[in-house]
Amino acid sequence: MKTSPHFTHEQFIHAVRDIAVQRLNAEERAAALDAKLVYGAGSKHTRGVTYFGCWKNGHDHAFAEVCAFGEDSPIQVAGTTLHELGHVLAGVGKGHGKGWKDACHRLGLSHVLAAGTRYSLACFAPDIRMAIAALPQPADGHPQPFGGIGPNGLPLQLKLRPCGAGIGAKGGKSRGPGSGSRLRKFVCDCGVIARVARDEFHAKCEDCGTEFKRAGAVIGQVRGDHDAWARIRGTPPADSVKP
Questions:
Q1: Which of 79, 136, 203, 215 is 20 to 30 A from 231 via CA?
Q2: Number of neighbours of residue 96 by Cβ within 10 angstroms
Q3: Gap between the Cα atoms of 55 and 11, Å rounded
Q4: Cα 204 vs. chain centroid, distance in angstroms?
Q5: ∠76-78-81 over CA atoms, to 5°?
Q6: What is the extent of the structural domain holding 93?
Q7: pLDDT grade for 193, boundaries at 50, 70 and 90
Q8: pLDDT for 53-78, tens place per residue?
């Protein structure tokens, strides 16, 4: 890969998508291009994540984020971009099953795992491999997930908390009437906790395969990374493990 002084990570992931969608039929190409594709912070445990039904611009769009704090190379960023677009094409609730793997293959990504894929050019189909390799490397810097300082002058806290403003769903009073958590708590059988901003949550845990149930009916242990991620976003990730 060459380096361009004006080529950003955002431009890079969009260029990767533009290359890969040429392999798709018209319907799937439109679906992949319709997704809101962004390069964001993420967390140190996540390379990418895809959401459904939480971005609207005239209609609902899938929202795919490639995470800076999970980055280790431009090739990995390219692979994660296609990994997340595989979720976009596979649709809600497909996880890392056959539908997702087939979608990745149609995008030109193979030898891919649900988590921990060691991306190399060999993971990409020959017809897109060289085009991706020829893209300029992003020249807008690289993430520093450890040792950073937040705006208050303190070390960065990766376990962020939800905004304390507004009226809570549980009617707490610690910050005034109605100031309890605005997020609903759901738990799966293995103890993963998700907090979402709606009363119904139709999703399965990718670790144990069981459906999330409203807290009160199920007691589980807190899983910090999943809990923090759900708190930050207020809606469940379709892909919350490290891809």
A1: 79
A2: 21
A3: 20
A4: 16
A5: 110
A6: 9-133
A7: confident
A8: 888 888 889 999 999 988 889 999 99
